[in-house]
Design goal:
The chain has 404 residues and is mainly beta. It has four domains: 26-141, Immunoglobulin-like; 147-256, Immunoglobulin-like (Sandwich), CATH 2.60.40.10; 269-358, Immunoglobulin-like (Sandwich), CATH 2.60.40; 363-390. 13% of the residues lie in helices and 51% in strands. Strands 2, 4, 5, 6, 8, 9 and 10 form a seven-stranded mixed beta sheet that branches. A five-stranded mixed beta sheet has the order 12-18-17-14-15, with no helix packed on it. Strands 20-27-26-22-24 form a five-stranded mixed beta sheet, with no helix packed on it. It is elongated.
Amino acid sequence: MKTKNLLGFFLVIASVLLLSVSFVSAGEISTAHYVEVDGTNPVTENVSVVAGETVTIQVWFTALQDDTDVRVEAEIEGEKVDEKAVSNVFDVEAGMRYKKTFTLYIPYELKDSVSDTVTLNIKVDGKDHRTLFDELTLFVQRPSYNADIMSINTPQSVAAGDLMAVDIVLKNIGYNDLDDLYITAKIPALGAEGTAYAGDLLALEPSDPNDRDDDTLSLRLYLKVPYGADSGLYTLEVEARNSDLAISVAKQVLVSNDFANNLVVGDYSKSFAVGEDGSYELLIVNPTDSVKVYRIVTESTGVLSLGLSDTIIAVQPDSSKSVILTASATVAGEYSFEVTILSSEEIVGQTTLNATVNGGVTANDAIVVLTIVLAIIFLVLLAVLIVLLKKRPEKAEEFGESYY
């Protein structure tokens, strides 16, 4: 029993000694230190920083002890968000002066005030020694002129030709009031744009509930999506601007179009015999809200003859009209031809149709036959020429007179 008590006593003594050693080894690494924020000493001067911006923090200290694995930490404490930067590890020697530089973001937490304070903490932490600098106070304020486009709401998708509603919420998060604001929404790829006058925005929400002005506004803009817009994703840009600022935010919107091509064809390929007509029904669609005049143009080879029941048609809003196209050929073969629909001389529909002409003589056969016929004609002409040359009379002998 006495042996156990004696062993316990020695264990307690050893623990106390270890704690004492730990306490001594964890002493101050520096008592001489200096801090600057953007070149200003926050101990002797009131340093003001801007929310949402970054500042440069420089730390100098003189080591009291030799130490290794030393890090310097700089931390800005906000109400909800903390920003921290840590140096790489390094070694220090007693009596030497060291400098570390950091870049820190100032949290943007000024909701109900245009200015406030944040705390800057600096710590030098080594393997055996540590120093925590005194807390430093920084005065933080909003940027002079700033606004936040808090939300942009649009339908999940919009059909080509429709009006798209764009709901926008804007808040003044700057130091000063914003006067004569304009809000613009646009889809550059479609040439769709709308602008509205938003008035004034106060820097802070007024205490009087009857005050008509506020620090936040909501408005709705309408954009006309062109009927000819292709289906797909487009970039919607929302901009708020006045004489003091211009900010913009972008989001993606989905456009659908079941009639991107105003031409609908029931059957793209037809089969018919030589000397007969193949008929194609062309449906011209007008999805707009006004009367449209369309011109139909066809293009084919000289072997294929094309005809239209109408070359110019007027189609009422949200309706369609059919046109019959006929094709015929004197030579069998496979043919293709273009059909183009124009409105105000702009192409609004285009397609390629195919024709298979059966019977008669094929184009290759026609070439062979023509070659044979020409060869026969050539041989006949050659034979006639030879006969004529053989039947040519001999030249009569000429006698001349002589005089003596």
